[in-house]
Specification:
By secondary structure, the protein is α+β, with helices and mostly antiparallel strands. It has one domain: Arc Repressor Mutant, subunit A (Orthogonal Bundle). It is built from 3 helices and 2 strands. The chain has a two-stranded antiparallel sheet with strand order 1-2. β1 and β2 form a beta hairpin. The longest helix is centred in the first third of the chain and has 12 residues. The chain is globular, with a radius of gyration of 12 Å. The mean pLDDT is about 90.
Length: about 60
Amino acid sequence: MLSPHEFAALMLVRSAPDRIDLNGTDLETLVERQLVVLEPLASGRQRLSLTLDGDLLLQAVARNR
């Protein structure tokens, strides 16, 4: 089960992946649970992206609202 902070971070990855601090423990948990991945960019930086599981989780929550 995700904490409220982890769930909020997951929603931010979907809506604003460039605005997230990559050092957060919430993001570490999301990566460990394979809900998000860090994609390397040509500039040498990394960008967060939802995995299929992360996207499906958010879709399931949206259907239950």
